[in-house]
């Protein structure tokens, strides 16, 4: 008897994603540090400046300056965050990646065509946006850790049941006496209860949300849909629990038919 659970693959997928998230969060930490280490220039007459308002970034009209610290910001982003945001096979332009990661206004402010000086306000805006992304990644990391724990629990529940079913399947029911059949039926009932508990706890988990500092949150249902979007099943834990419970139920029905014949 064999049953495909997808749980080992799901755990591997979650671990791989957590590793990628941790590396990206570390990259943002490096990026923030490099931007904070820059010395923003004071506003001087004849310079282009960036002002952040509720409507986004506004670039003032002034003669173009050939030197700009914003090139250093672009370089810092390319060295740190970019490798963890863009696939190796993706040739997405740097500013498009900055726009996707940090915002349209940040991308416009640091674009070479604007020749914007790195002012204190612009520096703080870049750091604030990067900090927001870092918190989101920390939240994702926590949610993934919880998902991995859930998969470990599922495996610890499912594996002994599968091993028992394989072992029990080697002995024909016709070779078992009445008491042995009753014991098998009872064991199958216990396994079904374990499956039902697993399914109930998993459903409760999917309705929960992982948040951090009340600034970022991700629902576990959304996380699961993202993680297993390429899997043969959308919900590996639920599908395994339901399938295993069904096998135990079928086993009980077969055992009961043999018990009736022994009465």
Overview of this structure, please?
The protein is mainly alpha-helical and 263 residues long. It contains 9 helices and 4 strands; from the N terminus they run H-E-E-H-H-H-H-H-H-E-E-H-H. The protein has helices at residues 7-36, 70-80, 82-85, 94-101, 104-110, 120-168, 178-206, 220-227, 236-262, and strands at 50-53, 56-59, 209-212, 216-219. A two-stranded antiparallel ribbon has the order 1-2. It has a two-stranded antiparallel ribbon with strand order 3-4. Strand 3 and strand 4 (216-219) form a beta hairpin. Helix 1 packs antiparallel against helix 2, helix 4 packs antiparallel against helix 5 (104-110) and helix 6 (120-168) packs parallel to helix 9. The model is unreliable at 42-49 and 59-67 (pLDDT under 50).
Please summarize what this structure is:
The chain has nine helices and four strands, in the order H-E-E-H-H-H-H-H-H-E-E-H-H.
Write out key terms for the chains shown.
single chain, 263 residues, mainly alpha, two-stranded antiparallel ribbon, 9 helices, 4 strands, 6% strand
Write the layout of secondary structure elements.
Elements: H1 7-36, E1 50-53, E2 56-59, H2 70-80, H3 82-85, H4 94-101, H5 104-110, H6 120-168, H7 178-206, E3 209-212, E4 216-219, H8 220-227, H9 236-262
Antiparallel strand pairs: 1-2, 3-4
Helix pairs in contact: 1-2, 1-6, 4-5, 6-7, 6-9, 7-9
């Amino acid at each position: 008897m064999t049953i495909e659970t997808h749980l080992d693959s799901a755990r591997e997928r979650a671990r791989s994603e957590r590793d990628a998230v941790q590396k990206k969060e570390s990259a943002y930490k490096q990026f923030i540090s490099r931007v904070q280490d820059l010395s923003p220039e004071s506003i001087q007459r004849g310079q282009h400046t960036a002002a952040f308002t509720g409507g986004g970034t506004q670039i003032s009209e002034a003669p173009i300056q050939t030197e700009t610290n914003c090139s250093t910001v672009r370089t810092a982003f390319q060295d740190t965050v970019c490798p963890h945001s863009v696939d190796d096979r993706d040739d997405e332009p740097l500013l498009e990646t900055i726009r996707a990661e940090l915002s349209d206004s940040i991308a416009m402010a640091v674009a070479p065509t604007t020749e914007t000086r790195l002012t204190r306000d612009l520096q703080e805006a870049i750091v604030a946006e990067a900090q927001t992304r870092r918190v989101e990644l920390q939240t994702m990391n926590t949610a993934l850790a919880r998902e991995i724990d859930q998969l470990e629990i599922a495996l610890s529940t499912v594996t002994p049941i599968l091993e028992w079913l394989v072992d029990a399947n080697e002995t024909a029911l016709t070779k078992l006496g009445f008491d042995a059949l009753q014991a098998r039926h009872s064991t199958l009932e216990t396994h079904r209860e374990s499956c039902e508990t697993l399914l109930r706890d998993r459903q409760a988990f999917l309705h929960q949300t992982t948040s951090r500092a009340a600034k970022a949150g991700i629902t576990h249902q959304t996380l699961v849909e993202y993680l297993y979007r390429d899997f043969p099943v959308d919900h590996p834990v639920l599908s395994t629990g339901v399938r295993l419970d069904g096998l135990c139920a079928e086993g009980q029905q077969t055992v009961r038919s043999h018990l009736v014949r022994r009465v």
